[in-house]
Design a protein that fits this description.
Length: 154
């Protein structure tokens, strides 16, 4: 009987982690697609052909691709932890979102700083970059914790 209770607890923890990872990745995907659509809209500015070419050239930037991969990995791993914290440990979902936003922001800014140092490129305004990344990370985590809070392990 004791083994059955322990086994059920382990399954619920894994279920919570799975839900957290899925919801966080889905939140990242929604915000990424929204930002890409917004970037495409701003880039075209009435001249669709030139704007489309410019937008596609911007998509080949390795620093941007690396940042997206680093953010996706960070959000997914922190999402698994957030699923456990919210569903199993019953922590406040807004506090979990705030702490994960700060961790994701720290990792993202650290990535840009390290890559910028080694590739020797200059960021014009660190404040603008940090504010933009903070807004993006905050939106990702608000969507993620909302989905985690609504979900229940099966």
């Amino acid at each position: 009987m004791v083994w059955k209770i322990v086994k059920m607890t382990i399954n619920s923890i894994e279920g919570a982690r799975r839900i957290g990872g899925r919801k966080a990745a889905a939140g990242f995907l929604w915000i990424f697609l929204l930002m890409e659509a917004f970037g495409f809209f701003v880039e075209t500015r009435g001249d669709f052909a030139s704007g489309m070419r410019s937008f596609m050239e911007r998509q080949r930037d390795w620093v941007f691709i690396g940042l997206v991969v680093v953010m996706l990995g960070t959000v997914f791993l922190l999402g698994r932890a957030a699923g456990r914290q919210i569903l199993v440990d019953e922590r406040n979902h807004l506090l979990v979102a705030l702490t994960n936003t700060l961790f994701t922001l720290l990792v993202s800014v650290g990535y840009v700083w390290v890559v910028g140092y080694f590739l020797r490129f200059y960021v014009d305004s660190w404040a603008s970059l940090i504010v933009l990344l903070a807004l993006i990370c905050g939106c990702i985590w608000m969507i993620a914790v909302r989905g985690i809070k609504r979900a229940s392990p099966r």
